[in-house]
Amino acid sequence: MQLIRPYAEWKPWKERIRHVTWSWHAVIMGTGVVSSLLHNFPYHNSSVPLQYTALGIDFLNMGLFAFVCSCTVLTYILFPEIWPIMLSDPTQSLYIGCFPMGAATLVNAALAFNQLWGVGGRRFLYVLWGLWWLDTVIALMVAFGMVCTMVVLHEHNVEKMTPVWLLPVVPLSVASSSGGLMANALKAHSTSFSLLTSTFFFGMLLAGLPLAVMIIAVYVQRLIVYGLPSAPLILSAFIVLGPMGQGGWSLLLNGQNVSELLPLHDQGSFPQSLLTGQMLFASCFSAAFMLWSMGICWIIITCFSVAYTLRKTRVPLSMAYWGLIFPNGAYSLLCVQLGNVLGSPFFRGVGAVWSCITMAVWLGVFICSIPSFIDGSIFNAAYLRDFPESEQAGITISFWKEGSEETAVNNTRATGTPAPSTCTSVHDLISKTDIANALTGKLSPA
């Protein structure tokens, strides 16, 4: 089996940049969660080899983040016509949600440096707090912006539904778990800031998690009615573990913080009762344990589905494999945190085993991705397959005055066949859907 294509078949770098998609940020997510697993490993957590390994992966992830972000920016600078095509794609556009989730793992890594080695001291902690608020704003914009885009711009049907629908809303859970870590670090400096952080991200979690559960319910219906998705999409089933793991981990982190901060004053009755913090923590623990149990059920269903599919066909290497790592890593963190809260060897053992499996998968996918990265075959934007660069560059919109009216002409394909479309004013809007349809020669009637 040939690992790397002949040099003559390598994609040039300009073409690779053109094919960079938002799914590349799943690489940042996967690498970042592996670092978190090492920082939170339940056994020999303070050992020097483990800490330096985590530190090395953190620096690797920073380099990957800089590379992917640079390529993403260059994609839309060099090929601005790709943006409306991407945004109108009902699947690939949802991967925008990977950006704030990947950025959150970097904030978590930097926070670990600050807490474990005292890097930057108190000032650096507040800088990280500010960056975390920025990531939170982006997560909120992506979550609600993309859900509205799905409703208004995209055309979906349940038969073709995949767990990728979850990607826009999972950033809310990821940001809230990051908030739990940040609130815990802030307690030593400001109880007010710590309580503010936990309270705000309880709200975020309670907005994002129910929405994720509703989408999961629709996906279960889709599986029962229409059966398993096609082989290239079967690996996306693990995405469902993401909101369960991150949601449960966030509930435990923020619940524990609140239990140590409340009540601010003892006045006898809720919410100023001495038991307020413990009651909230108990509720958080119950919800987190429920999510852990749901995760066990979903792991069984998903492993059966993947095994059944692999018996019939192979799933070629693609960016879809990177989607395996973050959800399983999030679930591992939930197991480890349950072990910490309960002092349970069982949960710690399960968390350690699942963490090792996740890290082994990350290492395998990382190594197997290197040859396809070298020859450029892994750079493959699905929404550009049917749109050669010559056709994309052929879309122009020009206006000129004809009598008292403004006339617009869309030049579509490289064959030179014009597709005229008139409008009454220069200020008439041309929707992203029309632009995407123009690329396929399906212009809406004037």
Written overview of the protein:
This protein is mainly alpha-helical and 446 residues long. It is 64% helix and 4% strand. It folds into 2 domains: 11-382, Glycosyltransferase (Alpha/alpha barrel); 389-439, no CATH class. It contains 14 helices and 3 strands. It has a 3-stranded antiparallel sheet with strand order 1-2-3, with no helix packed on it. Strand 1 (396-402) and strand 2 (405-411) form a beta hairpin. The chain is globular, with a radius of gyration of 24 Å. The N and C termini lie far apart (53 Å). Residues 390-446 have low confidence and may be disordered. GO terms for molecular function: sulfite transmembrane transporter activity. This is Sulfite efflux pump SSU1.
Concise description?
The protein has 14 helices and three strands.
Determine Rg (CA atoms, Å): 24 Å
User: Any idea of the CATH class of the largest domain?
Assistant: Mainly Alpha
Give the N-terminus to C-terminus distance in angstroms: 53 Å
Helix content: 55-70%
- Which whole number gives the mean pLDDT? 83
- Output the number of helix runs: 14
Q: What is the H/E order?
A: HHHHHHHHHHHHHEEEH
CATH superfamily of the largest domain: Voltage-dependent anion channel
CATH topology assignment of the largest domain: Glycosyltransferase
Secondary-structure content class: mainly alpha
Indicate how many domains the architecture comprises: 2
Q: Work out the strand percent.
A: under 5%
Runs with pLDDT <50, length 5+? Answer: 390-446
GO cellular component, one term: plasma membrane
Organism: Obba rivulosa
Transmembrane segments: 21-39, 59-79, 91-111, 131-153, 165-186, 198-220, 232-252, 280-308, 320-339, 351-374
Subcellular location: Cell membrane
